[in-house]
Amino acid sequence: MAAPASTKTRTEILISGFGGQGVVRMGQILGLCAINQGHRVTMLKSHGTETRGGYVRAQLVISPDEVDSPVVEHADVFVAFSAPAYKKFYDLCDGTIMYDPEMVSDVRHDAGAARHVAVPATQLSKERFSNQLFANMIMLGALTRVAALDRDAMQRAMLAVIPRFHEQNLAALELGYTLPAVV
Amino acid sequence: MATVDPALLPNLVAPWSEWERRATRGRRLLEAGTYALTEGAIAAGCRVFAGYPITPATDIAEYMSKRLPQVGGYYMQAEDELAGMHMCAGASLGGLKAMTATSGPGYTLMHDAYGWALTNEIPLVVVDAMRVGPISGITGAPGQGEFYVARYCTHGGNFETIVLSPSSVQEAFWLTIDAFNLSERFRTPVTILTDQVVSDMWEDLFVPDSTEPLDFVVPRALNLSMPFYPVGSAALDVPPNVIGHGTGVCVSAYTHTEEGYDIEEMEAQWAQTYRLVNKIRHHRAELSRYETLGLGDAEVIAVAYGANARTVKTGVLEARRRGVRAGFIRLITLWPFLDSLFERDARYVVCELNYDGQLVREVMRAAPDKRNVHFMGKSAELHTVAEVATALEGVARSGRVPELPFIWTEV
Fold this sequence. Notes:
- The complex is a heterodimer of chains A (183) and B (411).
- Chain A has helices spanning 23-36, 83-89, 121-129, 135-146, 151-161, 166-177, and strands at 11-18, 40-47, 55-63, 75-80, 93-99, 115-118.
- In chain A, 45% of the residues are buried.
- With 183 residues, chain A is α/β, with parallel strands linked by helices.
- Strand 2 (40-47) of chain A pairs antiparallel with strand 10 (202-208) of chain B.
C-alpha cells in the first residue's frame, strides 16, 4: 500500500450505502458545516442511475487549505451503510469504520484493522421515530462526536440544508452524538 | 512551522487569479460545478440560454430556467442541441449574451451551428460536460474524449477555436466569465470543455454579491458601422454584429464580404481565412491560461487538464516526497495549444481520461523529443494519487510507465 499523500492536513471521509438512505444529504451537511467554519471542502458523489436502492458513495475531503485531489484514498472515517459498501471500501480506510449493524453483519477483525464503531442507526430510528428516515442523522450525530467536530455548527448546517422535520432531525442528531458507543 | 519550498508553490496564469482578490463581498456555498457555470454566466451578463438537457449538463439547464427569468433573461427549451445552439447564435446577433450546455452526444449535433457562429463571428459560450464514450458511454462517469472534437468543432477547416477547461467548482465560476469575455473580444464561440466530475462535484464556492461591480466583465457593444466583418485583418477591438438596426449587415454561411454578402472569389476566401485563423493565432499570449508547479528542477513532468489534474497534482507532490524531481503542467487553455509550455527538455507523462490518447499527441508534437513523451490513459474514473506517483517514479527511474491495472500507455 502506498504511503499517504504528503498533504497531512486533509481529513478524508467516505460514506456509502444504498440510494434513499440519505448518504448524499449527510455529506452535504458535513461539507456545509466545514465551509461555515472556514474550511475548504470537496465532495464527490457517485451513484447508479436509480434514485432509490442503487449504490451511492460520497467522498469528502476537508482541509484548511485548497484541496487538490478530491478522491478519498485513505479515509480517516468510513461510514458503511450497507454490506456491499463495507466490503468494497474496507481497504480504503486506515482510521475509523462506523457501520450500521442492521446493514453490515459480517465485520472483519484482521490484525491491524481499522477501529470499528457499531452505530445501530436504522434500528434506533425505527424505535424512536417509527421511521427509518432519521438513521442518517443519527449516524451524522455519532460521526460528529467520533471526528471531534463542532456539534452546534453541525446542527446549524443541518437546519440550513434540510427543509422539513427539524425537530426530529435535531433529536436524531443529538441521539447519535450521545450514543454510549461514541461518547 | 514547516517551511514551504517556493518551487512547490503553484503558479497560476489566468485572469481570475487577480479577479479573486478584487471581489471581496459575497457568499461561500457548498455547490456543484453546474451551479458555478450557471452563476458565472449570469455574472458575465448572459441573458439567454437555449439547449436540450443531458447528463451531466442537465443541472445547468435547470438552474438557468430558474435564474434567467429572475434577471430579465430568457430560457428556451429547444427540440434538440442543434436548434439550441442556433437559437443562441440568433440571440447573440440580436444583442444579448447567450450560452448553451450539453455533453458529448449533444456536442456532436452542434457542428453545423458552430460553423455558422464561427464564420459569422458570433460571440457565445458552449459548455460540453464530457462523460466517457464513445456516444452515450456511461452517463455518470467522466471522460476526456472531446479534446480534438472541440478543436475541430465544425467541418471545412480554415478556422481556429478557443477552448478552456476548469478543474474545480470555483474555477468553473471565474472561467465562465472569462469565456464570455473572450467570446466578445475575439468574436467567436468559446467552448468550455468540462467533465462529469467538475460538473457534479460539490465544493466550496465563493460567489460575489450581485451588487459587487465586476468591472472586468466585457460588456456587449453595438457595431452599427462598416466593416461588419473586418476580413483580411486580425484586429480584435471590433465589436460583434448586431442585426436589426437598419445597418444592412448580412449573415450567411458562405464566404462573405465586409458587409456579409456571399462572394465566390479566391481573394475573399483568403481574406476571410486570414481573419478567422489569425485573430486567434496572433493573440496566443492573451489566450494563455495554465498552472505549473515544480518546473524549476523537474526531470519528469506530469501533464493534465480538467478534473483529473486534481489527483495528478497531488500525485506530483507525492512523487516529490519520494525523491523524484517531478513537475506539473495543468492546461486551462486547451486551444489554441500552448506549445511554448513544453519547451523544457524533460520527460512528460500525459494523464488523460481516454484510452486512445489525444492531448498526448499534441504534447508529442510540441515537446523537444517525442520519444520522451509518455501516455497514461484511464477511462471512466480519475487517476489515483498512488497511480500517478508510481508512474512518475517509474518514468524517472526506468524511463517507462510501469504496468498498472486499467491504465493504457500505448498511443
